[in-house]
Amino acid sequence: MIAFIRGKVFAYGIDWIILDNQGIGYRIFFGHPEAIKLNQEIQIFTYQHVREDELSLYGFLSLEEYELFLKLISVKGLGPKTAMGMLSKFHYEQIVQSIENGDVNFLKGLPGIGGKTASQIILDLKGKLVI
Question: What pLDDT, on the 0 to 100 scale, is given for residue 131?
Answer without folding.
Answer: 54
